[in-house]
Amino acid sequence: MSLFSALYESRWLLVCATLVAYLVYKVWVYRRLSAFKGPFGSGWSELWHSATTISTDAHAKYKEACDKYGPIARVGPNDLVTCSVELLTHMSAARSPYSRSVWFARGTRTRPGEDHLFSETNENIHTRRRQQMAMGYSGKENLELEDTVDVYIKKLIQLIRTKYLSTPDSAQPFDFGQKAQYLAVDVINDVGLGAPLGDLDTDSDQFRYIETTEAGMKLGRLSVSLGLVFLLQSPWIARLFGSSGKDGLRFAWPLRHARARINERLRHDTEKRSDMLASFVRHGLTAEELVNESILQLVAGSDTTSTAIRSIFLYLLTHPCVYAALQAEIDAAVADGTAPPAPGIISETAARSLPYLQACIKEGMRVHAPAGSPFPKRVPDGGDTVVVDGKPVFLPGGTNVSVAMFALQLNKGIFGDDAQEFRPERWLLEKDEKKLAVMNRTHDLIFGYGKYQCLGKPIALMEINKAMFEVSSVIFSWVRAKD
Ligand code: HEM
Ligand SMILES: *[C@@H]1O[C@H](CO)[C@@H](O)[C@H](O)[C@H]1NC(C)=O
Ligand SMILES: *[C@@H]1O[C@H](CO)[C@@H](O)[C@H](O)[C@H]1NC(C)=O
Ligand SMILES: *[C@@H]1O[C@H](CO)[C@@H](O)[C@H](O)[C@H]1NC(C)=O
């Protein structure tokens, strides 16, 4: 009683003390990163950063921040973004003491409390899991990869030829972006689970898989921005939405599908095949771990790849000179036998030998990087000093450092004054070897770097190369038929 009344007596003192403590804390947080400038108020509150991550143009806002405030800009009390190649490669280097920030676990988990390679923030577990999975992704133990990709490229071409080729007496407009998604989803389901969904066969979003993963990503973005992840990842809510993989609503479907396919494969023919799943099993992944990883694969592997194919095409079709030059190269490749006659599909090796095609692919992925997420890394406890643009910079421990991918890929210092423009020739005409090497190194970061670098890169590039060559040929032959 007496304690109570004593507290009551001094209530104003307590309120003031709390307020002062709060202010001192705020000032301390502010001062930790005060060496870095950023948008108004971003050093004091999460408001700017939350509003930015909720919006669908965070990639553009991060770019603005770097353009305005330099290669390291402050976007939140504890958050920096960077477009420095030095810093980005330093953070993700093989033995770097940096780790993934909690963003990964919060934003990319597909099941409450359970991690996959991408959401894993524990470095030791991540390193071991990555070793177990690298072979399956690389193609060394995934011998069926190229044949599998060919099957679906053929289906895509077939679909366009039979259903969507315009003739002089009837126009057949169609949404190519959607067909690119069907391709990516069918390929990754076959490559990853040994079972396509049949999107290209049926010309539809089977099981509303694309709709579901898009909704899932939107939900993930919103809940991370609003700090509601604890809700989304509570087992109770998850059960309600079905993401726990038991029964329930739409989010359960991709998980159920993956689990069923994996169990089937483990019962029957894992020994006989040499695909990704077989490789993972050989390297010791259990059935449940495979389920965790498969969902990551399906999401990471379909949205990014189809975005790449879509944007390269968009830039190609809106740049007639580039289009004509590519057409000439493709015609020559068909004429001299570099590419097999239809319905054969060009080999990846042959596609990679076509310099202009390569330049178009590289440039399309540069002006619109397919993965624009922040992928924040955490500065090790005790902080770290890095040299950026010749100056040493101290980063306090625990700070999140995100990549400003669009600032990086559209950097005028690296790509020249027309960095914003789609000009494939920049990769072919650059005489300065040193400058070209820097351009290459920067471009490579589209797939991340070092210990976190995209494992799906060979798969993605194989799909993109073949799709770009073959779909372009179909469109060109159509244009000629019309003349
Ligand atoms: C154009 C297509 C793609 C782009 C631009 C892309 C981009 C990226 C980036 C930037 C990262 C690293 C994130 C970080 O720094 O933490 C990453 C990681 C990853 N990607 Fe991709 N990706 C693509 C396609 C794919 C495909 C097709 C697959 C699967 C078949 C895939 C699977 C993965 C996996 C498993 C990781 C995690 C690696 C790890 O945690 O060690 N990606 N990707
Ligand atoms: C940055 O770090 C803080 C503290 O660890 C964390 O609460 C915050 O959510 C992080 N931001 C992002 C974008 O991960
Ligand atoms: C995957 O799933 C299993 C079983 O549900 C779980 O114990 C594990 O923590 C998950 N994550 C990883 C990285 O294996
Ligand atoms: C840049 O990358 C291309 C392949 O994309 C390669 O052929 C070329 O040799 C590289 N140039 C330099 C200077 O690194």
From TrEMBL:
Source lineage: Eukaryota, Fungi, Dikarya, Ascomycota, Pezizomycotina
CDD domains, A to Z: CYP57A1-like
Protein name, entry field: Cytochrome P450
Organism: Chaetomium fimeti
Family listed: Belongs to the cytochrome P450 family.
Pfam families the UniProt entry points to: p450
Highest taxon of the lineage: Eukaryota
Residues that coordinate or bind heme: 454
Ranges annotated as spanning the membrane: 12-30
GO MF annotation, one: oxidoreductase activity, acting on paired donors, with incorporation or reduction of molecular oxygen
Cofactor requirements of the protein: heme
